[in-house]
């Protein structure tokens, strides 16, 4: 079916005549009439009948006009949906994030994002560093927000947003609290560690290897950052953790920091995407927002 001719016929039905349709469409009346005649010939039915100096719809014309009205309403709805999607105001945003940004950064960023993009469905998965990379490569997510040391990964683009320090933390009133000691001394304290695959855990063990120090004794193992901090607050062990996760607790005196000689490390926070792939408009809008809002945290 000739959709151009159908749209002209639909306009005639909506406006109530050929003259008004021609004015609406800004084409000549003979052109309007010719298109309708061609459509009648194509369909093998009469759509318009003369009535005095005007026209009216036949039964077949009313039937076709009813379907055409629904069709072009759907076309307008589709056009609007495409505009919304291209502007980043609809669709699904799938994010995988490691525990630190998932707990301490993304709640604020996503709250700001949803205020500007309320119709976008956001799916956030929290994972360790290894799982975050796998989730991105397996297309379970379009964006990964990653905290920790990074090694070049085939097929993944890395963009650093900000960085903070990694701190050694012990319970308040611990013998090492507020002191400067060696890494070997620090490793005598039982540690609370994340599971294997955690970037921070791997960096601690790499630091021990680099300085030829025995790795820490694993006293407890948790899959989350908050659990680790709570255990130290309760009086047990030590943790090696991003300052973002524990700074407030240190300032309040809930826990204490230990200065370790030769162990000054920075913890980057980055967004990762698949190389040479165009982001969806929703994801592109999210990245634009986090770039802007991470500037204020850089260097903290």
UniProtKB/TrEMBL annotation:
UniProt-recorded name of the protein: LysR family transcriptional regulator
Keyword terms, alphabetized: DNA-binding, Transcription, Transcription regulation
Record bears the keyword DNA-binding: yes
All copies of domain HTH lysR-type, residue ranges: 1-58
Organism domain of life: Bacteria
InterPro entries on file: LysR_HTH_N, LysR_subst-bd, WH-like_DNA-bd_sf, WH_DNA-bd_sf
Annotated SUPFAM superfamilies: Periplasmic binding protein-like II (SSF53850), Winged helix' DNA-binding domain (SSF46785)
Entry coiled-coil feature ranges: none
Stated family: Belongs to the LysR transcriptional regulatory family.
The keyword ATP-binding is annotated on this UniProt entry: no
């Amino acid at each position: 079916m000739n959709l151009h001719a159908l749209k002209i016929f639909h306009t005639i039905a909506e406006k109530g005549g050929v003259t008004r349709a021609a004015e609406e469409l800004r084409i000549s009346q003979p052109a309007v009439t010719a298109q309708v005649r061609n459509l009648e010939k194509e369909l093998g039915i009469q759509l318009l009948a003369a009535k005095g100096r005007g026209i009216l719809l036949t039964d077949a014309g009313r039937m076709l006009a009813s379907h055409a009205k629904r069709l072009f309403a759907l076309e307008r709805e589709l056009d609007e949906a495409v505009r919304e999607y291209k502007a980043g105001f609809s669709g699904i945003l799938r994010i995988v994030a490691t525990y630190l940004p998932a707990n301490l950064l993304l709640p604020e960023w996503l709250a700001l994002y949803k205020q500007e993009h309320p119709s976008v469905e956001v799916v956030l998965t929290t994972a360790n560093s290894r799982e975050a990379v796998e989730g991105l490569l397996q297309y379970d997510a379009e964006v990964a927000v990653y905290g920790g040391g990074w090694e070049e990964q085939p097929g993944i683009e890395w963009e650093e947003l900000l960085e903070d320090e990694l701190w050694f933390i012990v319970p308040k009133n611990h013998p090492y609290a507020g002191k400067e000691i060696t890494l070997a001394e620090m490793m005598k304290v039982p540690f609370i560690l994340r599971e294997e695959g955690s970037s921070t855990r791997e960096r601690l063990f790499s630091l021990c290897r680099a300085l030829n120090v025995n790795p820490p004794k694993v006293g407890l193992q948790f899959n989350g950052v908050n659990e680790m901090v709570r255990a130290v607050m309760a009086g047990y062990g030590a943790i090696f953790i991003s300052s973002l996760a524990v700074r407030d607790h240190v300032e309040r005196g809930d826990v204490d920091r230990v200065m370790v000689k030769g162990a000054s490390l920075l913890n980057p926070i980055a967004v990762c995407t698949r190389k040479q792939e165009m982001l969806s408009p929703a994801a592109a809008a999210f990245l634009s927002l986090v770039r802007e809002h991470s500037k204020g945290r850089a260097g903290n």
